[in-house]
Specification:
Structural class: alpha/beta
Strand order of the largest sheet: 6-9-10-11-12-13
Number of strands: 18
Radius of gyration: 23 Å
Amino acid sequence: MSSSKPKLQILTRGCSKNRVDTEHLLAQISDSYDIYPEGELQDTYVDTVLVNTCGFIGDAKEESINTILEVVKRKNEGLVGKIMVFGCLSQRYSSELPDLIPEVDRWLGARDNDEVVKALGVAPDVSRHQSRYMPGNSSYAYLKISEGCDRRCSYCAIPFIRGAHKSVPMEKLVEEAEQLASRGVRELVIIAQDTTYYGLDLYKKRCLGELLERLAQVRGIEWLRLHYSYPADFPEDVLDIMARNPKVCRYLDIPLQHISDKVLDNMHRHVTGKWTRELIGKMREKVPGVVLRTTMIVGHPGETYKEFNELLDFVRAARFERLGAFTYSEEEGTWGARNLKDSVRPSTKRRRLDRLMEVQRGISADFNLSRIGKTEKVLVDSWYADQGVLVCRSEFESPEVDGEILVKYDVEKFGETAPDTLVGKFVYVKLAAADDYDIAADYVSLAE
């Protein structure tokens, strides 16, 4: 970079929702700064480093703190001018962090990107609120349809970090989707703290299904993928739309957290194990072939070996194609931290997590092996020339959290098609071999 504009780098930590915040923020300031890409800190001088932080659970908080300290080290070495920190961590610990890390020049919260824009000396531009800074080409993008959460799960700090649920108006989301499609994005991953709550504040009803149908009409968008669907009061019209609309992936991320009535009650999830089992059955019945992804918490207060074994039995029976899990982390300020004793030892939590993921690895491997020999339509995300591999996904793999379909370059199969020109396009591949999470496949032809 050789222009006279000040140099800026942003480091985003945490979930995909934070990434969307970063992209909206950078769209506001891109005319005023030279922006270095995410990744490693630069070895040359940078005027301002922004850190977008996560404050959800212990590991995420630690990662954000370590990132800030690394930037502080660079500042002390004369490689960074100013440090600005925003996002969930600085929102949650706004009174403590300035004294703990005084080298940071400005601490800002998580609820208003415009305040960060102003702190960078730029006047917020309302016309750019739906714009995203996404240098290069990307086959997919995350679309955040709401902010905040009205749920009160006993273990979760998100409501008092991000505030009450606030839906983005439908017309603004369609506008954002159109902008993304014009840049070559083919898949939208729908995200929020709780996607099933969408519309209640604006339209006085759940409108997730209607939103999916509106987004499916955006020219250029071929896949819509739904994440973070809260199980209580799940809008069943979404299943009907998923079953009939080919643009809505037969894929659903629905964090269940547990199956034991005792643990679910302690978690304030407002569902029972029986209700959960019936919902999963309904999903598989209404959407044949649907791939379900869920998240579980092990070691929550009240979870004895009995409740944990009930969870294991449920996972074995439900056979979630995708499953992630983490150990319970007592978060100050939550109802659970105030009212429940964190009675499960850390070593026990870790053993339970390992056992659960061992069961899941077998289920995931079985699912992958069941697809060997089939020809599937996949989206090409990237081309690694040094490895000679196309990295792809079918409608059954979500970016960054699931496995990948890897296609080795074979000149006899590709013919005159240069593999790098396939990035962002749909192709047909034949699945050839699989491990627990990834699949090897052979290129067949273009799908468009």
